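Working notes for the structural subgroup meeting. M.R. asked for a predicted model of this chain before we commit to crystallization trials. I am recording the input and output together here so anyone reviewing the notebook later can reproduce the run.

Input as submitted:
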Amino acid sequence: MKRIILRSLEDLPTAAKEIIQILNGFTIVAVQGPLGAGKTTLIKEICKQLGVPDIVNSPTFALVNEYFTTTQKTIYHFDFYRINSIQEVYDIGYEDFFYSGNLCFVEWPEKIEELIPGKSLRIVLEEKENGIREILIMRN
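Returned structure, recorded in token form:
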């Protein structure tokens, strides 16, 4: 398990670079934390560091957004906060994304826990006092 402390948004690029180094071989990244903990903000910075030139937004209503890096690698970004049933995830064809070999960031993975592949990276964001965030990174 790796622990990263974010004292301010200025620490975000360094944290994203550390996470990218840990990504080696992982394509599914399950990102957990309470509402407002910074899940989307962290994913935005990781995507920026990976070379996504587009604006990265939370796919809260679309469930999934697709991004391309400057080297034409594909990244999928899921947000399952608003799903009402696991069937919605089946309906979007999650298998095509999760097993594509492309990087997939999954917000609110606890809502679809049984669908998260065994080999995945789990990132847990915790809010501490004074706006400090603690990022815990675990390999499954």
